[in-house]
Each structure stands twice: as C-alpha cells, then as structure tokens.
C-alpha cells in the first residue's frame, strides 16, 4: 500500500503509464464486469486494470501484457467506488485504526476524521506522526482541524488548544475546517480569532463545516456569508432543502443518536425532489453497536429502499463527498488515476459488498473479511494506559451544590433544584438522583453536583471516557465510587461499574483511557453488555456512551458540567466554579 495522500512519486507515475503501453503488466485485472461510471451516471460493461494501489483504466480494452497479473472474474459482480464517510468521530470507544479497518471490510474505504481527541490526549508532534502511521491502514484517512474544544476549559489549556489550530489546518492530511460548534461566539460574540481561522481555511482552499441544529434562515445565511460550506444537522426534508437552497453541501445523517435518514429521504421524495448532487451520507460518530452492518452501506440501502435512483444513491455515498472535499481526482470514482477502492456487489440493489479492494488489496473476499495481523505502535505516539498518580479523597465526594443536572434525553440536560440530603453515604433508591463528579485527569480540580435520570440504583460508574478526557463519576454510593475509581486506576482507564462493593462490569480503554485497543466485533459485544447493565440500574435512554461523552459539551443545551464549573450554555456563564483540589 504505497498510496500518497495527494500524489504518487515520479517513478510510480511512469510505471502507471507503462502499464497502458504494455511495458508493465497490471497487478490485478477485473474482466467482464459491470461498473458504475459516476461521470456518465451509467452502469458500464468492461474491464478494470489496477496497478498496486491505483486504477489504471476502466473500459472495453484489455491490457497488452498480463504476465503475473491476478485475474479476477467480474462477470457476476457490479462494481462501485469505495464508500466515503465524510464526518467520522473515530474515538467513540473504538480507535481510528480499528474503525478504519472495520469500515473498509464493509465497503467504507475513506474516512474524514475529527481531530478533537488528539488535541487533548497527545502533543502535536506525536499526533502528526500518528497521521503518517495511519497511512498504513487499508482505508484512506483524512482529518478536520477543529476551531473549538466543544467545552469550556481552563485558560492555560485554551491557549494550548488555540496554538494548535493553524498547524493542523495547514497539514496536508487535513482537508476541512470544523466542525464549527462554537458558531454563536463568531456570529454573536464577536470572536474575530475564530473568524480569522475560518478565513485562513478558505485561503487554503479547504471547506468549512458547521454545526447548526435548528438554525433559522437568517443564521444559515449569515454563517454562509462568514464562510461555512457544509452542514449535517438537518432533521427533516424541509431543513435539507433550506440548506441546499443557500448553497450548503448537506450531510444526511443516520446515527445512533439521530437516525433521521429514512424520514428525510421519504420527505424529499414526497416533495418530488430529484437532485442529489450536493448531498452525502454520514453516520456522525455513532457508537459501536450501531455499526453492526457497517457505516455507509446501510445508508445507501435505506436510500435504495426509499426509491432513490441507484446511481444517485451510490454517488451520495462516494463521489459527492470526494467532490466536496476537493479529492475527486483521487477518490470517489472508478476512473484512471483513482486510488483502487472498489466494492464488488452481487446486485445494484444491495450495497453490502461481497468483496472489497482497498488501496488495491483484498480486505473482504467471498463475503469474509480478510485481516492482516500487525501491531500498532500506539505507545511511541503517546497513547498508553492511563497512569493516575493521585487518589480519590473524601473531600472529592462532597456534594453541596444547590443546582443539579436533569436528563431530558441522552445528551440534553436542564437544571433542577436539589432538595435531597446529599450528605449520606448512599442515596436512597426511591428517586433517580445520583452523585455526579467531574475530575481533572491530572488531579488539579473537581466539579460536584447531582445528576437526575441516569440511574435509580447503581452504586457507581467511573469513566475516563469523556469529551475532554477527564474523569466522570456517577452513582448512588460514595464507597462504591471509591472502589470504582480504584479499579479504574488498576486497569489503566476505561469504564467501571460497581454496586454494593462488587465490580459488575468493566471495559478497559487502554489508549489514554479514552479508546479501546480491541477489534470492533469484540467492542460491539462489550458496549451491548454495558447498555444492558445500565438498563437494569434504571438508565431509560438509548445511548449511555453519548451521555458520558457530552456531559461537558457546550454545544448542547441547557446546563453542562465542564472543567471550569457548572455552565449555563445559553449565557455562556459559569454558575458554580470548579474547586481546586
């Protein structure tokens, strides 16, 4: 796999043209197949020549030289470009490598990834070396450059965050600015620093993605004027059409937290909408269990079932994203010069590939994944098990806050007045209020309150998985919280559940306490076990992993627990500050 992100070396280019002249043989030849030509918007019969990781030719001609060529009978297959996930959050318990390898085996061979966790978990030099390491995975891996942290963090950390924005933005693996969740600060708060980064993104000829749920037409227009190019928060067909009308590239979302795609497609077709050229699918960083069938392939299947033309359905999952990001000369189509990402289908109505070539190598064949055993050097890039050099104290578990956080759903929290006795060792089980603590992973500060709606009986949950990488403690029992914290230290980070002095579940997250170094199939089983456990303890919502992730996220209403304290989101105001330990 010798693909370069933006170019092949001169020697390789000469070899590619030599294949056309018959001086070199292609490494693979797919004969007598039917393939999708996205430029003609037609299914074409012909042959596909591949040399290492690059498509050399698609059409009626056969190569002059085939000595040593792997011959592939394509007569029973329909071949489409590898699918593209334009908005991946590759840290939702899984890690970028495990997600990419799993995605490729189900046909999604390109991911455009969030860089947020690298800004918190490792330094810039090690993060950039990781980007190079990821070039060795089967999928093509690209990245965003975040402008904001999604939370409110201490001034020193905010300065460190801001220092990294431009170096990331200028990195050649980064092809987008955003997603911009702090747009109110730009639009209403006069944040010229962020507006400068947006303009620098435009100067670099890279698009900017927004995060504008429920935005009015005025907000959409003003943010377009300030530089936004795409947006993925539409929840209805009307919102999609509104964004399209203002020139936004529009992501159609099908995720574990917002599975809107079926209703959006139904609404678009009911309105007679037939132009899909500025739309693309996204699973928006779903949690592991949502990916049982794959990433983009289920989205295409939903589009086909809704009645979208098959060519448009596949192009939304491939070419339209590549065109938007300016990488269509490398990805998103079956044509000379493209990276050899090919999905072999049994029928155009079934987007689940029976075979997949990623960068010219088999990652799926005869409906079975093809895996290669290799170690990944996580530790040399700064990602090791969490090493906590401090201990939980009695003072850390003092809860005198008058205002708590009540769950409206998995991720939206509203304030409520605390009227229970929070001085007891264990809160009673006749209500669903629990202790809640956010602790700095370096042991510098803490924030304490109560959380209503998460559990009515669980002694403790401790998690090093969070939006900022800090520690979350939730539970009814102080002693159980101490035991869970102790076990978290022993396993090097993760999610631990304790009840009545007994560990009832644990998921080690050995990569900085945030990501598991597990294959996706195993992780999917562990996440399902976590969900089932929490249900028995009174968790009534669908996705507890998202609850843990977004407790401190300032892009969601109404009240948040953050590294600087309890925050009022609307007013961007600290209600109760963090306490230094």
TrEMBL record:
<dbReference type="InterPro" id="IPR032466">
    <property type="entry name" value="Metal_Hydrolase"/>
</dbReference>
<keyword id="KW-0378">Hydrolase</keyword>
<dbReference type="InterPro" id="IPR011059">
    <property type="entry name" value="Metal-dep_hydrolase_composite"/>
</dbReference>
<feature type="domain" description="Adenine deaminase C-terminal">
    <location>
        <begin position="428"/>
        <end position="572"/>
    </location>
</feature>
<dbReference type="Pfam" id="PF13382">
    <property type="entry name" value="Adenine_deam_C"/>
</dbReference>
<feature type="domain" description="Amidohydrolase-related">
    <location>
        <begin position="78"/>
        <end position="363"/>
    </location>
</feature>
<comment type="similarity">
    <text>Belongs to the metallo-dependent hydrolases superfamily. Adenine deaminase family.</text>
</comment>
<protein>
    <recommendedName>
        <fullName>adenine deaminase</fullName>
        <ecNumber>3.5.4.2</ecNumber>
    </recommendedName>
</protein>
<dbReference type="InterPro" id="IPR026912">
    <property type="entry name" value="Adenine_deam_C"/>
</dbReference>
<dbReference type="InterPro" id="IPR006680">
    <property type="entry name" value="Amidohydro-rel"/>
</dbReference>
<dbReference type="Pfam" id="PF01979">
    <property type="entry name" value="Amidohydro_1"/>
</dbReference>
<dbReference type="GO" id="GO:0000034">
    <property type="term" value="F:adenine deaminase activity"/>
</dbReference>
